[in-house]
Hints:
The chain is built from five helices and no strands. By secondary structure, it is mainly alpha-helical.
Amino acid sequence: MKSENSRLAVYPLLIIPFGGLISLGIIYMLYFGVYMLIETTMYPNNSLDVPAGLIRNTFALVIFLIYLLFLRTRWSEPLKAAIGVGPVALVLIAVGLALYLKPILSMVAVLIIAASYATFLYRNKRPWFYYYAVALSVLAAIFYAWPR
Length: 148
């Protein structure tokens, strides 16, 4: 009995980082595909005119809204949390890059959004590993969008 309970506790700790990494990779490839499609079809002669920020922010919002709908499915909770790493990180990265020239404001905005999402999870009585997924999303966003 004790071994089964410990296995159930370890399962999310393993699946969320690996599933989250896969989720991030798929979302980045989708974003790259959308960006390249828009660049080649609408701006074939001057790639500097592509509104990268607008595309990134719109894509992040759409993916996050799709993920909120995905939370209502009957898939396993650890899998939903793992898949959520990508959309949440994408939103945090979009905010971080939008405020790139104001690093303090950028970090505050990222933390406010992460805390708001954590509050949403708390109010919807989600298990503990969703918060773990949020923490991994914040780490991924900081790693990607940290000012250099």
